[in-house]
Amino acid sequence: MSIIYSKITSVINKISDEIHRSFLFTTIFSILRFIELQWINSYFKELYPNEKFLNFLNNSILKKNLFNPLIVLLLFSFFLILSIKSPSKSLVITLIVGFIAFFIGSTILPKYFLNNNIRIIEFNKKDIYSIGFCLILVSIIFFGICIASVGGIPLLKPSIRYLLKPIFTMPVFLIIPGTCLVASAYLKDFQMKNITRSQARFRFIFLLAIDTALLLLLGYRTPLVAAFLIIIIIGFYGNIISLWEVIISGLIGIGAIIGIGYFRSLSEMTITSSTNPFYTLQSRADFTLHVLNLLDFVGGNAGLTHGHLLTSSIPGSDLGPRMLIGKIIAWRTEVTVTPTLIGQMVVDFGKIGVAVEMCILGFILGIGFKIMQKTKNYFYIAIYSLILTYSILGIETGILDIQVLFYFATAIFIYLINIKKSQQ
């Protein structure tokens, strides 16, 4: 496995080096270095509040546990509360089972691993940066292809958003892990004191600006929130972003989600200007809970599809997982339906599946959180931020996309090797 990794990273490093040496990118990075220098020495930067701003928020327990895996349960509960409708009695039991299983997996089971002689795999920063840089480059190329294929910008013409083809949009979403890896490489530079905190912050903001430009112009909210969350989590645990900035950013992010949804609904004429802006968020939660009630009913205790829903994520399947959900609950295969975090679990394997899969998900996040806190390693901060981000987003959408499943599979693989290595 290490030989394969070495050969792949060797090729990627060569590609990255060649691109960096090209005239175009030499010019781009020269301009960025100039802007970064102006940023660092800017008088206006001195007007920005320092780390001690809103100092009353700097609670040590909150700083240590703000992005604890249990935040998934907290946000899931909040999402359910948003809904006007109430869950059925059967669904309440399913949720209790899932929540208890997740708590056991994330909080109790990790206590039995990596307690004394923790030994982790160390990844080369250059490899991580090169992989991330190439992923971002691929996403930018496919962004151009997406715009050309529909003949316009979906944000400005919402109707053409539905003409976007998954075969072109999926590579654009590689900007999310790409951003994660490049940001972690900058974090490593900061930890090694190769760059200052101001430089690291500028580079994080620039990465987020690229993500925002690409994903917002395509009219996608969820991947944009993913990029936003990843930058915040890496910056927070890397001491690049302060706690008060995380809280303010979270409020801005919630406002952005509501705002984008509201104005997109106005442009699509699904609501009127007199409608409460919170209605779009409430209606989504309401619809998703209604879907979950139906899925819980058909899933029962042992499930209906027995793994077929999860395997439908594999490219080449007749129907994607969210289209399959649409067929199960309404016999409509032309629409995609978000099933929440436990929707796939209950349809595939029922309440038993919810217990097992939520426990596994909790364990992955729990082990990742423990490794990150013990080592403060830049790469493990990045990988935890990636899987926690998609767990949070999965509260509504479910963890069903093939690339997201790949991220989790990679995390599981790396964590298991670390556990085995530490036990030797």
Topology:
Blueprint: H1 2-21, H2 23-40, H3 60-65, H4 71-82, H5 89-108, H6 125-150, H7 166-172, H8 175-191, H9 197-217, H10 222-237, H11 243-267, H12 279-299, H13 308-311, H14 321-330, H15 343-375, H16 378-397, H17 402-423
Helix pairs in contact: 1-6, 2-9, 4-16, 5-15, 6-7, 6-8, 8-9, 8-10, 8-16, 9-10, 10-11, 10-16, 12-15, 15-16, 15-17, 16-17
Structure description:
The protein has 424 residues and is mostly helical. It folds into 2 domains: 58-117 and 276-374 and 384-423, no CATH class; 119-241, no CATH class. It is built from 17 helices and no strands. The chain has helices spanning 2-21, 23-40, 60-65, 71-82, 89-108, 125-150, 166-172, 175-191, 197-217, 222-237, 243-267, 279-299, 308-311, 321-330, 343-375, 378-397, 402-423. The mean pLDDT is 86.
Short description:
This is Oligosaccharide repeat unit polymerase. This protein is mainly α. The chain has helices spanning 2-21, 23-40, 60-65, 71-82, 89-108, 125-150, 166-172, 175-191, 197-217, 222-237, 243-267, 279-299, 308-311, 321-330, 343-375, 378-397, 402-423.
What form results from the Cα inertia axes? globular
Radius of gyration using CA atoms only: 22 Å
Major β-sheet, in short?
Answer: none
Distance between the termini: 19 Å
| Structural domain tally | 2
Kindly estimate the percentage of residues that lie in beta strands according to DSSP.
under 5%
Features:
424 residues; mainly alpha; 2 domains; 17 helices; 70% helix; globular; O_anti_polymase; transmembrane; transmembrane helix; membrane
